[in-house]
Amino acid sequence: MPFGIAQVGKAFRNEITPRNFIFRSREFEQMEIEYFIEPGDDVWPEQHKQWIENMRSWLVGIGLREELMGYEVHASDKLAHYARACTDISFVFPFGEQELLGVAARGNFDLTAHGEASGKSLEYFCEASKAKYVPHVIEPSCGVDRLFLALLTSAYCEDEVGGEKRTLLKFHPSVAPIKVAVFPLVKNKPEIVALAKEIHANLAKRYNVAYDTAGAIGRRYRRMDEAGTPFCVTVDFDSVADTEEGGQGGEDGAEFPGTVTVRDRDSTEQKRVPISELYSMLSKEIDGF
Description:
This protein is of the alpha+beta class.
């Protein structure tokens, strides 16, 4: 102890009227953790508090906006008969503030009920203390569909770039469906296209990567903004000029002496990056290492 088990699977509601798009539906995906702990009134409150903080940090870490989140502490007279405490992390959806994720301190009700129904003891023997007890459980629980809706709500943004209105999805790189887009600046120069395809193929070994040659470069950027792609890599004439003396590069780009333009989705800032550093830079931004 403590010992945790995580699972995700189908869940169902027994009701007639679902509502608010995918916020509430009859059939949905549920994620939860059963975190087993020692009994004791000095143990569960601290564990419950820690898991609330852990789950909030996780939500922020995958891109939810903190200013849209809140807490709802269930009053003692509103708790289930077996619960010691329950706190919901709420989120301001387009239709109002609603529950997103719950963290419940469920006591030892679950294992006690299973033991009684099965006739098998679920007591745990602790070697350190030589004590035998039925573990208590802290249960963080979240609906995948509801979380997806919160991610979309957090990510949707409208701003103005160069006097034009822009619509974009500010997905955190870790959850963006397309991590990187690779563009040859023009598609009628074989050497530019070949280098762009080489970079695309190397990045595609690790990430979901888009490759686009249609239209002006600005329009391609806008399409990727709308898809929530955090980074665009453009191969241009300077890239080819820089690489004329070099050979084909591996996944880390070590053999490429050239540079490419990397554009950031949120700031639209563009910077020249050596191809030899491109893969490590993107790995740090997307994976965090």
